[in-house]
Amino acid sequence: MSDLLCFATIALAGFAQATLQLSFGGLILLYHASMGQHRRRKTRHLTTAYILGALVITMLAVSGIAFWISQLAGKALTLEMTLICVGVFIACAAIMWLLYYRRGKNTELWLPRSFSRFIARKAKATDDTIEAFSLGTLSAFAEMPMSIAIFFIAANCILTVSAHLQLVALLAYLLIVALPMLALKFYVRTGNNAVMAQRWRVKNKTFIRFVSSLSFMMLSVFVLTFWVY
User: Is the Cβ–Cβ distance between 95 and 199 less than 8 Å?
Assistant: First the structure.
């Protein structure tokens, strides 16, 4: 496979993961809780630690899967494993459209309510960077049922590119995944607040569902076209 095709797949995989809303929603909760308790500088440190926590777990997951593929799976995903990932992407596309959000004028995700309350409670209680970092890691772990297949495809692509570009590919993937959270930081930094961002999410929930579902479907078609046939 060419490096260009690998980077295109990585970009699509990163975009699909970026459309997942748990880490982003947790960051909004953290902003909303900390802005009323701390100075802006402390809030910036907390949110930066949160984003780093989410990215570190993503990096470790992708790197670990890449190591597993390189050592135990013959240095590339088998056809069967790739087809399984495609099937998971199609299932995720349906879930994103039909089940991912609860009904009503809110952006509450289809998670056990006890777990949702736990995340909200942790966001409100977060008072230092270590707790914020831990909350970021928790949000990334909680998204893994939807993102694990993406990790496999991304890891496979990173292994396939030229050796001198593998670190660049990993960093590009992490940057794309982080873009929504970085955009929120920039949005708040320019004088807006997280409440306005949340109102936009509620108002445009159907559009967000459509983009998320479409991104998973596009990824499945792309992988099926260029990595299977």
Answer: no
pTM, to two decimals: 0.92
Cα–Cα distance list, 224 to 74, 80, 84, 113 (Å): 20, 12, 11, 36
Q: Using CA atoms, how far apart are residues 161 and 165, in angstroms rounded to an integer?
A: 6
Domain count, the chain: 1
Range of the domain at 173: 3-228
User: How long a stretch of residues is the chain?
Assistant: 229
Run of H or E residues at 47:
helix 40-72
3-state class (DSSP) for residue 99? coil
Determine the Cα angle at 113 with ends 107 and 118, to 5°. Answer: 95
Question: What are the CB-based long-range contacts (under 8 Å, 24+) for 83-90?
Answer: 83/228, 84/149, 85/149, 85/152, 85/153, 85/223, 86/220, 86/223, 86/224, 86/228, 88/148, 88/149, 89/16, 89/149, 89/150, 89/216, 89/217, 89/219, 89/220, 89/223, 90/216, 90/217, 90/220
Contact 210, 103 (CB under 8 A): no
Average pLDDT of the chain to the nearest whole number: 88
pLDDT in tens, 115-160: 667 767 777 777 788 988 998 999 899 889 999 999 999 999 999 9
118's CB contacts (< 8 A; 6+ apart) are none
Cα separation, 202 vs 109, in Å, equals: 12
Exposed / middle / buried, residue 152 (Cβ in 10 Å: 0-12, 13-18, 19+) = buried
C-alpha span between 159 and 4 (Å, rounded): 13
Secondary structure class of 18 (helix, strand, coil): helix
